[in-house]
Amino acid sequence: xxxxxxxxxxxxxxxxxxxxxxxxxxxxxxxxxxxxxxxxxxxxxxxxxxxxxxxxxxxxxxxxxxxxxxxxxxxxxxxxxxxxxxxxxxxxxxxxxxxxxxxxxxxxxxxxxxxxxxxxxxxxxxxxxxxxxxxxxxxxxxxxxxxxxxxxxxxxxxxxxxxxxxxxxxxxxxxxxxxxxxxxxxxxxxxxxxxxxxxxxxxxxxxxxxxxxxxxxxxxxxxxxxxxxxxxxxxxxxxxxxxxxxxxxxxxxxxxxxxxxxxxxxxxxxxxxxxxxxxxxxxxxxxxxxxxxxxxxxxxxxxxxxxxxxxxxxxxxxxxxxxxxxxxxxxxxxxxxxxxxxxxxxxxxxxxxxxxxxxxxxxxxxxxxxxxxxxxxxxxxxxxxxxxxxxxxxxxxxx
Length: 399
What we know:
Blueprint (H helix, E strand, L loop, with lengths): L2 H20 L9 H9 L9 E8 L3 H12 L12 E6 L10 H10 L27 H7 L3 E9 L3 H7 L8 H4 L14 E5 L1 H10 L4 H8 L3 E2 L13 E3 L5 H12 L6 E8 L5 H19 L7 E6 L3 E6 L12 H6 L6 E3 L3 E8 L3 E7 L7 E4 L1 H11 L10
Protein backbone atom coordinates (compact mmCIF):
# COMPACT_ATOMS: atom_id res chain seq x y z
CA UNK A 1 0.00 0.00 0.00
CA UNK A 2 1.39 3.39 -0.96
CA UNK A 3 1.92 6.22 1.51
CA UNK A 4 -0.93 8.16 -0.08
CA UNK A 5 -3.29 5.19 0.21
CA UNK A 6 -2.36 4.70 3.88
CA UNK A 7 -3.06 8.38 4.57
CA UNK A 8 -6.47 8.18 2.88
CA UNK A 9 -7.41 5.08 4.91
CA UNK A 10 -6.24 6.70 8.16
CA UNK A 11 -8.23 9.85 7.36
CA UNK A 12 -11.37 7.85 6.69
CA UNK A 13 -10.96 5.89 9.92
CA UNK A 14 -10.45 9.12 11.91
CA UNK A 15 -13.59 10.66 10.44
CA UNK A 16 -15.57 7.53 11.21
CA UNK A 17 -14.34 7.44 14.81
CA UNK A 18 -15.10 11.15 15.29
CA UNK A 19 -18.64 10.69 14.02
CA UNK A 20 -19.10 7.76 16.41
CA UNK A 21 -17.64 9.58 19.43
CA UNK A 22 -19.38 12.89 18.96
CA UNK A 23 -22.76 11.83 17.57
CA UNK A 24 -25.42 11.80 20.31
CA UNK A 25 -26.71 8.37 21.33
CA UNK A 26 -30.18 7.45 20.14
CA UNK A 27 -31.67 8.12 23.57
CA UNK A 28 -30.11 11.57 23.69
CA UNK A 29 -31.66 12.55 20.38
CA UNK A 30 -35.02 12.73 22.16
CA UNK A 31 -33.66 14.65 25.14
CA UNK A 32 -34.29 18.29 25.93
CA UNK A 33 -30.58 19.08 25.55
CA UNK A 34 -30.39 17.61 22.06
CA UNK A 35 -33.56 19.45 20.98
CA UNK A 36 -32.08 22.66 22.37
CA UNK A 37 -28.87 22.17 20.38
CA UNK A 38 -30.90 21.59 17.23
CA UNK A 39 -32.87 24.79 17.83
CA UNK A 40 -29.69 26.73 18.53
CA UNK A 41 -28.37 25.85 15.09
CA UNK A 42 -31.50 27.18 13.38
CA UNK A 43 -31.49 30.58 11.64
CA UNK A 44 -32.01 33.61 13.89
CA UNK A 45 -35.66 34.68 14.08
CA UNK A 46 -36.92 38.04 12.86
CA UNK A 47 -36.88 41.24 14.90
CA UNK A 48 -39.28 41.33 17.83
CA UNK A 49 -42.53 43.25 17.83
CA UNK A 50 -43.47 42.14 21.34
CA UNK A 51 -41.51 41.12 24.44
CA UNK A 52 -42.78 39.24 27.48
CA UNK A 53 -40.52 39.04 30.53
CA UNK A 54 -41.25 36.31 33.08
CA UNK A 55 -39.48 37.15 36.34
CA UNK A 56 -39.37 34.48 39.05
CA UNK A 57 -38.37 36.43 42.15
CA UNK A 58 -35.55 34.37 43.74
CA UNK A 59 -35.90 31.64 41.10
CA UNK A 60 -32.33 30.37 40.93
CA UNK A 61 -31.02 27.27 39.15
CA UNK A 62 -31.38 25.06 42.22
CA UNK A 63 -34.97 26.21 42.77
CA UNK A 64 -35.94 25.40 39.18
CA UNK A 65 -34.40 21.95 39.54
CA UNK A 66 -36.24 21.36 42.82
CA UNK A 67 -39.54 22.57 41.36
CA UNK A 68 -39.25 20.01 38.57
CA UNK A 69 -38.44 17.24 41.07
CA UNK A 70 -41.32 18.19 43.36
CA UNK A 71 -43.96 18.68 40.66
CA UNK A 72 -42.99 15.86 38.29
CA UNK A 73 -40.66 13.52 40.19
CA UNK A 74 -37.96 13.98 37.55
CA UNK A 75 -35.43 16.66 36.55
CA UNK A 76 -35.80 18.78 33.39
CA UNK A 77 -39.59 18.52 33.22
CA UNK A 78 -40.40 22.23 33.41
CA UNK A 79 -41.58 23.75 30.15
CA UNK A 80 -38.97 26.49 30.23
CA UNK A 81 -36.22 23.90 30.61
CA UNK A 82 -36.97 22.89 27.02
CA UNK A 83 -36.32 26.36 25.60
CA UNK A 84 -33.44 26.49 23.12
CA UNK A 85 -31.46 29.48 24.42
CA UNK A 86 -30.04 29.71 27.91
CA UNK A 87 -27.37 31.46 29.88
CA UNK A 88 -26.35 32.31 33.42
CA UNK A 89 -27.01 35.85 34.61
CA UNK A 90 -24.78 37.43 37.28
CA UNK A 91 -26.84 39.60 39.64
CA UNK A 92 -24.55 41.52 42.02
CA UNK A 93 -25.00 45.23 42.83
CA UNK A 94 -22.10 47.65 42.40
CA UNK A 95 -20.78 47.34 45.96
CA UNK A 96 -21.67 43.84 47.21
CA UNK A 97 -21.95 40.26 45.98
CA UNK A 98 -25.55 39.46 46.95
CA UNK A 99 -28.41 41.32 45.29
CA UNK A 100 -31.90 42.23 46.40
CA UNK A 101 -34.85 42.61 44.05
CA UNK A 102 -34.40 46.36 43.65
CA UNK A 103 -30.92 46.22 42.16
CA UNK A 104 -31.60 42.90 40.42
CA UNK A 105 -34.64 44.08 38.47
CA UNK A 106 -33.33 47.61 37.93
CA UNK A 107 -30.23 46.13 36.27
CA UNK A 108 -32.37 44.05 33.90
CA UNK A 109 -34.74 46.91 33.10
CA UNK A 110 -32.16 49.68 32.62
CA UNK A 111 -28.86 48.01 31.74
CA UNK A 112 -27.25 49.78 34.72
CA UNK A 113 -26.27 48.08 37.96
CA UNK A 114 -27.05 50.05 41.09
CA UNK A 115 -27.21 49.49 44.86
CA UNK A 116 -29.50 47.26 46.86
CA UNK A 117 -32.69 49.04 47.82
CA UNK A 118 -32.48 51.51 44.92
CA UNK A 119 -35.10 51.56 42.15
CA UNK A 120 -33.85 52.41 38.63
CA UNK A 121 -31.38 55.09 39.67
CA UNK A 122 -27.65 55.39 39.05
CA UNK A 123 -25.25 53.85 41.59
CA UNK A 124 -24.42 57.18 43.20
CA UNK A 125 -27.80 56.96 44.94
CA UNK A 126 -27.64 56.39 48.68
CA UNK A 127 -30.58 54.37 49.91
CA UNK A 128 -33.08 56.55 51.72
CA UNK A 129 -30.80 59.60 51.71
CA UNK A 130 -29.68 60.62 48.25
CA UNK A 131 -31.11 60.30 44.75
CA UNK A 132 -29.07 59.12 41.81
CA UNK A 133 -29.89 60.04 38.24
CA UNK A 134 -32.96 58.22 36.93
CA UNK A 135 -31.94 55.39 34.59
CA UNK A 136 -34.29 54.94 31.65
CA UNK A 137 -36.22 51.69 31.83
CA UNK A 138 -37.17 49.30 29.07
CA UNK A 139 -40.80 50.14 29.76
CA UNK A 140 -40.05 53.85 29.35
CA UNK A 141 -38.38 53.15 26.00
CA UNK A 142 -41.47 51.16 24.97
CA UNK A 143 -43.82 53.93 26.09
CA UNK A 144 -41.74 56.54 24.24
CA UNK A 145 -42.13 54.52 21.04
CA UNK A 146 -45.87 54.04 21.36
CA UNK A 147 -45.95 50.40 22.43
CA UNK A 148 -48.55 49.21 24.88
CA UNK A 149 -47.18 48.10 28.23
CA UNK A 150 -48.26 45.89 31.10
CA UNK A 151 -46.93 45.00 34.55
CA UNK A 152 -48.33 42.09 36.57
CA UNK A 153 -47.15 40.74 39.91
CA UNK A 154 -48.16 38.37 42.66
CA UNK A 155 -46.61 40.89 45.05
CA UNK A 156 -47.29 44.55 45.74
CA UNK A 157 -47.45 46.56 42.52
CA UNK A 158 -45.19 49.11 44.28
CA UNK A 159 -42.64 46.56 45.47
CA UNK A 160 -39.11 46.50 44.10
CA UNK A 161 -39.49 44.19 41.09
CA UNK A 162 -42.53 45.76 39.40
CA UNK A 163 -41.52 49.26 40.54
CA UNK A 164 -38.21 48.98 38.69
CA UNK A 165 -40.14 48.95 35.41
CA UNK A 166 -41.97 52.26 35.84
CA UNK A 167 -40.52 54.23 38.79
CA UNK A 168 -37.32 55.76 40.16
CA UNK A 169 -36.57 55.97 43.87
CA UNK A 170 -33.62 55.91 46.25
CA UNK A 171 -35.54 53.56 48.55
CA UNK A 172 -37.69 50.59 47.57
CA UNK A 173 -39.69 51.01 50.78
CA UNK A 174 -41.22 54.34 49.67
CA UNK A 175 -44.37 52.83 48.21
CA UNK A 176 -46.33 56.03 48.74
CA UNK A 177 -43.89 57.82 46.40
CA UNK A 178 -43.32 54.95 44.00
CA UNK A 179 -46.89 54.01 43.08
CA UNK A 180 -48.03 57.51 41.98
CA UNK A 181 -45.20 57.63 39.44
CA UNK A 182 -47.21 55.23 37.30
CA UNK A 183 -49.70 58.06 36.78
CA UNK A 184 -47.12 60.77 36.01
CA UNK A 185 -44.79 59.01 33.56
CA UNK A 186 -41.63 60.52 32.12
CA UNK A 187 -42.41 58.98 28.70
CA UNK A 188 -45.66 58.16 26.93
CA UNK A 189 -48.87 57.80 28.89
CA UNK A 190 -47.54 55.34 31.47
CA UNK A 191 -48.20 51.67 32.11
CA UNK A 192 -51.33 50.63 30.24
CA UNK A 193 -52.19 47.53 32.28
CA UNK A 194 -51.24 47.27 35.97
CA UNK A 195 -52.35 44.29 38.04
CA UNK A 196 -50.84 43.60 41.45
CA UNK A 197 -51.31 43.27 45.19
CA UNK A 198 -50.32 45.44 48.17
CA UNK A 199 -53.48 47.50 48.46
CA UNK A 200 -53.48 47.98 52.24
CA UNK A 201 -49.85 49.04 52.63
CA UNK A 202 -49.84 51.27 49.55
CA UNK A 203 -53.05 52.88 50.78
CA UNK A 204 -51.51 53.54 54.20
CA UNK A 205 -48.43 55.16 52.68
CA UNK A 206 -50.55 57.27 50.33
CA UNK A 207 -52.61 58.44 53.30
CA UNK A 208 -49.45 59.41 55.18
CA UNK A 209 -48.63 61.71 52.28
CA UNK A 210 -52.12 63.21 52.17
CA UNK A 211 -53.25 61.17 49.17
CA UNK A 212 -55.35 58.08 48.45
CA UNK A 213 -56.37 55.74 45.66
CA UNK A 214 -59.51 57.83 45.09
CA UNK A 215 -57.54 61.07 44.87
CA UNK A 216 -55.13 59.57 42.36
CA UNK A 217 -58.02 58.18 40.33
CA UNK A 218 -59.79 61.53 40.15
CA UNK A 219 -56.64 63.52 39.41
CA UNK A 220 -55.71 61.30 36.47
CA UNK A 221 -59.22 60.20 35.42
CA UNK A 222 -58.19 56.59 35.84
CA UNK A 223 -60.02 54.23 38.21
CA UNK A 224 -57.93 52.05 40.54
CA UNK A 225 -59.92 48.89 41.14
CA UNK A 226 -59.66 46.72 44.25
CA UNK A 227 -60.26 43.42 42.45
CA UNK A 228 -59.55 42.09 38.99
CA UNK A 229 -63.23 41.28 38.52
CA UNK A 230 -64.19 44.90 39.10
CA UNK A 231 -62.34 46.18 36.04
CA UNK A 232 -64.87 46.30 33.17
CA UNK A 233 -64.00 44.86 29.77
CA UNK A 234 -64.54 48.32 28.30
CA UNK A 235 -61.53 49.68 30.22
CA UNK A 236 -58.53 49.05 27.95
CA UNK A 237 -56.06 50.59 30.45
CA UNK A 238 -57.11 49.04 33.76
CA UNK A 239 -55.29 49.43 37.07
CA UNK A 240 -56.02 46.87 39.78
CA UNK A 241 -54.40 47.03 43.21
CA UNK A 242 -55.82 44.15 45.21
CA UNK A 243 -55.07 42.37 48.46
CA UNK A 244 -54.08 39.27 46.48
CA UNK A 245 -53.55 38.77 42.77
CA UNK A 246 -54.34 35.73 40.63
CA UNK A 247 -51.34 35.92 38.30
CA UNK A 248 -52.76 33.51 35.72
CA UNK A 249 -56.08 35.34 35.41
CA UNK A 250 -54.29 38.69 35.34
CA UNK A 251 -51.86 37.57 32.64
CA UNK A 252 -54.54 36.18 30.34
CA UNK A 253 -56.58 39.36 30.81
CA UNK A 254 -53.53 41.49 29.99
CA UNK A 255 -52.81 39.49 26.85
CA UNK A 256 -56.38 40.07 25.67
CA UNK A 257 -55.80 43.80 26.07
CA UNK A 258 -52.27 44.01 24.65
CA UNK A 259 -52.20 41.59 21.75
CA UNK A 260 -54.05 43.88 19.35
CA UNK A 261 -51.56 46.71 19.98
CA UNK A 262 -50.91 48.40 16.60
CA UNK A 263 -47.15 48.83 17.23
CA UNK A 264 -46.40 46.04 19.71
CA UNK A 265 -46.23 45.56 23.46
CA UNK A 266 -44.06 44.89 26.49
CA UNK A 267 -45.48 42.71 29.26
CA UNK A 268 -43.57 42.06 32.50
CA UNK A 269 -44.89 39.33 34.82
CA UNK A 270 -43.46 38.61 38.26
CA UNK A 271 -44.31 35.59 40.39
CA UNK A 272 -42.73 35.11 43.80
CA UNK A 273 -40.35 32.13 43.95
CA UNK A 274 -38.74 32.62 47.36
CA UNK A 275 -38.44 29.27 49.09
CA UNK A 276 -38.54 30.42 52.72
CA UNK A 277 -41.48 28.00 52.64
CA UNK A 278 -40.12 25.34 50.31
CA UNK A 279 -43.45 23.86 49.21
CA UNK A 280 -45.06 27.23 48.53
CA UNK A 281 -42.07 28.60 46.63
CA UNK A 282 -41.54 25.49 44.49
CA UNK A 283 -45.26 25.24 43.74
CA UNK A 284 -45.21 28.87 42.61
CA UNK A 285 -42.43 28.02 40.16
CA UNK A 286 -44.33 25.01 38.82
CA UNK A 287 -47.51 27.08 38.43
CA UNK A 288 -45.59 29.91 36.77
CA UNK A 289 -44.06 27.43 34.35
CA UNK A 290 -47.50 26.12 33.38
CA UNK A 291 -48.66 29.68 32.79
CA UNK A 292 -45.62 30.36 30.62
CA UNK A 293 -46.46 27.33 28.47
CA UNK A 294 -50.01 28.66 28.14
CA UNK A 295 -48.78 32.10 27.12
CA UNK A 296 -46.36 30.62 24.61
CA UNK A 297 -49.30 28.89 22.95
CA UNK A 298 -51.01 32.23 22.44
CA UNK A 299 -48.18 34.22 20.83
CA UNK A 300 -46.32 34.15 17.52
CA UNK A 301 -42.67 33.40 18.24
CA UNK A 302 -41.70 34.86 14.89
CA UNK A 303 -42.33 38.35 16.28
CA UNK A 304 -42.40 37.82 20.05
CA UNK A 305 -39.49 37.31 22.45
CA UNK A 306 -40.20 35.32 25.61
CA UNK A 307 -37.57 35.73 28.32
CA UNK A 308 -37.49 33.97 31.70
CA UNK A 309 -35.06 34.94 34.43
CA UNK A 310 -34.70 35.83 38.11
CA UNK A 311 -33.57 38.95 39.94
CA UNK A 312 -31.38 36.97 42.36
CA UNK A 313 -30.92 33.46 43.66
CA UNK A 314 -31.88 31.86 46.97
CA UNK A 315 -30.32 29.41 49.43
CA UNK A 316 -32.01 26.13 48.51
CA UNK A 317 -30.28 22.89 47.60
CA UNK A 318 -31.39 19.34 46.93
CA UNK A 319 -28.93 17.00 48.63
CA UNK A 320 -30.87 13.73 48.72
CA UNK A 321 -33.91 11.88 47.45
CA UNK A 322 -34.99 9.01 45.24
CA UNK A 323 -37.30 8.65 42.28
CA UNK A 324 -40.73 7.60 43.40
CA UNK A 325 -40.44 9.28 46.81
CA UNK A 326 -41.62 12.81 47.74
CA UNK A 327 -38.89 15.40 47.51
CA UNK A 328 -40.12 17.40 50.52
CA UNK A 329 -40.22 14.56 53.03
CA UNK A 330 -40.32 16.10 56.53
CA UNK A 331 -42.02 19.31 55.37
CA UNK A 332 -45.25 18.73 57.28
CA UNK A 333 -43.41 18.15 60.55
CA UNK A 334 -41.36 21.32 60.00
CA UNK A 335 -44.49 23.31 59.26
CA UNK A 336 -46.32 21.94 62.31
CA UNK A 337 -43.38 22.89 64.52
CA UNK A 338 -43.74 26.55 63.55
CA UNK A 339 -41.55 26.75 60.45
CA UNK A 340 -39.51 29.77 61.56
CA UNK A 341 -35.96 28.39 61.46
CA UNK A 342 -33.27 30.39 59.69
CA UNK A 343 -31.97 27.14 58.23
CA UNK A 344 -34.50 24.46 57.28
CA UNK A 345 -33.28 20.85 57.25
CA UNK A 346 -35.66 18.45 55.50
CA UNK A 347 -34.62 14.94 54.58
CA UNK A 348 -33.71 15.77 50.98
CA UNK A 349 -33.65 19.55 50.92
CA UNK A 350 -31.66 22.18 52.80
CA UNK A 351 -32.90 25.77 52.81
CA UNK A 352 -30.77 28.64 54.03
CA UNK A 353 -33.50 31.28 54.06
CA UNK A 354 -31.57 34.11 52.46
CA UNK A 355 -30.64 35.56 49.08
CA UNK A 356 -27.45 34.15 47.57
CA UNK A 357 -24.86 35.37 45.06
CA UNK A 358 -24.61 32.64 42.43
CA UNK A 359 -25.80 33.28 38.89
CA UNK A 360 -29.45 32.72 37.95
CA UNK A 361 -30.88 31.14 34.80
CA UNK A 362 -31.87 33.17 31.78
CA UNK A 363 -33.93 31.21 29.26
CA UNK A 364 -35.40 32.49 26.02
CA UNK A 365 -37.31 31.57 22.90
CA UNK A 366 -38.60 33.56 19.96
CA UNK A 367 -37.48 36.69 18.14
CA UNK A 368 -34.06 37.81 19.38
CA UNK A 369 -33.60 34.90 21.78
CA UNK A 370 -30.30 33.77 20.26
CA UNK A 371 -28.36 36.39 22.24
CA UNK A 372 -29.15 34.61 25.52
CA UNK A 373 -26.15 32.34 25.91
CA UNK A 374 -23.11 31.90 28.12
CA UNK A 375 -22.26 33.75 31.32
CA UNK A 376 -23.10 37.46 31.45
CA UNK A 377 -24.00 40.29 33.80
CA UNK A 378 -27.75 40.75 34.25
CA UNK A 379 -27.43 44.12 32.46
CA UNK A 380 -26.89 42.11 29.25
CA UNK A 381 -30.57 41.17 29.29
CA UNK A 382 -31.48 44.83 28.78
CA UNK A 383 -29.29 44.81 25.67
CA UNK A 384 -30.85 41.54 24.48
CA UNK A 385 -34.31 43.10 24.60
CA UNK A 386 -33.28 46.44 23.09
CA UNK A 387 -31.50 44.58 20.27
CA UNK A 388 -34.53 42.37 19.73
CA UNK A 389 -36.52 45.54 19.04
CA UNK A 390 -33.67 47.08 17.07
CA UNK A 391 -33.37 50.06 19.42
CA UNK A 392 -30.29 51.89 20.66
CA UNK A 393 -30.10 53.30 24.22
CA UNK A 394 -30.35 57.05 24.43
CA UNK A 395 -31.67 57.59 20.90
CA UNK A 396 -35.06 59.16 20.27
CA UNK A 397 -37.58 57.10 18.27
CA UNK A 398 -36.87 59.03 15.05
CA UNK A 399 -33.10 58.58 15.22
